[in-house]
């Protein structure tokens, strides 16, 4: 049985499953869920993609055919998402995180990766990740830190993958300069201005679109309104999160708004895309970035 760790602050409560990818299993204001609820059946699956949110580390999105070249070395990873030939979202979401320092309203989870033997198939660089969840009176703050503990430079990206309930009339608004268009392999092949279904510069009903796209030039702010609940969420992300992925699958009762630091498959696109967003960490270098979800009750 999975142990659930709960944080509280005022009206807010956050349930966490450190052993299931460091995932959030519930985020509530009072008795109202503002992220997708994780049912007992979902929890029993021990699958982070069935939870309310999980961290994306040490990169987000897909690596094409689970292979890449970096600093003169060829690397092959073990595909980690069903029948897909790609490698998805790093290994943090498939790992058990250790519980570090904690209080009533904050906790830090820790994940060490030694990259030896079979572990190299998950990521070929030695590293440490720290994931802090903190509840403020009206906000959830999520912070990811990665330290390169390898003797070589390491490519690195960060992100968060929250699932929100797709309720009647739910709207989404954010600004971006471009949207990446993917081919049938789900790998981005071109980008264009965000027009039509891709334009969220004004609030748009989530139910009106079907999307699974990464946006570049993300302005760092996304607003979600649940009219039937009289609640609004404001997602604000550090400058490191230059991209945002929006996932609205057809016929589902959820959608995702994911602040991320780089484009999908960035590790294979660095020579051709100058603003790919991926960071290169020198040995012992560390990157830290946060995203906040503020909750507001509407009149």
From TrEMBL:
MF terms in GO: carbohydrate binding; isomerase activity
A Pfam family it matches: Aldose_epim
Gene3D superfamilies: 2.70.98.10
BP GO annotations: carbohydrate metabolic process
Source organism, top-level taxon: Bacteria
Protein's recorded name: Aldose 1-epimerase
Organism: Salinarimonas ramus
């Amino acid at each position: 049985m999975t142990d659930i760790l709960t944080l509280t602050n005022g009206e807010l409560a956050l349930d966490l499953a450190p052993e299931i990818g460091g995932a959030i299993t519930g985020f509530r204001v009072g008795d109202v869920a503002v992220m997708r609820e994780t049912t007992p059946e979902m929890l029993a699956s021990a699958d982070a993609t069935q939870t309310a949110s999980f961290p994306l580390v040490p990169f987000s999105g897909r690596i094409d055919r689970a292979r890449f070249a970096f600093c003169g070395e060829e690397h092959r990873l073990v595909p980690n998402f069903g029948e897909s030939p790609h490698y998805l979202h790093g290994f943090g979401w498939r790992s058990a995180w250790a519980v570090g320092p904690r209080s009533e309203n904050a906790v830090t989870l820790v994940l060490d990766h030694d990259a030896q033997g079979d572990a190299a198939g998950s990521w070929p660089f030695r590293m440490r990740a720290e994931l802090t969840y903190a509840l403020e009176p009206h906000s959830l703050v999520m912070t990811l830190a990665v330290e390169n503990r390898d003797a070589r430079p390491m490519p690195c990206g960060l992100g968060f993958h929250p699932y929100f309930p797709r309720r009647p009339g739910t709207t989404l608004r954010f600004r971006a300069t471009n949207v990446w268009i993917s081919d049938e392999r789900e790998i981005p092949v071109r980008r264009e201005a965000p027009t039509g279904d891709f334009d969220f510069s004004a609030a748009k009903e989530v139910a009106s679109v079907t999307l699974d796209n990464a946006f570049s030039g993300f302005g760092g702010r996304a607003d979600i309104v649940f009219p039937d609940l009289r609640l609004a969420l404001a997602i604000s992300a550090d400058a490191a999160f230059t991209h945002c992925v929006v996932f609205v699958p057809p016929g589902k009762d959820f959608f995702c708004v994911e602040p991320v630091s780089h484009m999908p498959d960035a590790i294979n696109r660095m020579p051709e895309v100058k603003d790919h967003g991926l960071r290169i960490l020198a040995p012992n270098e560390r990157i830290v970035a946060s995203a906040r979800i503020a909750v507001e009750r509407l009149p």
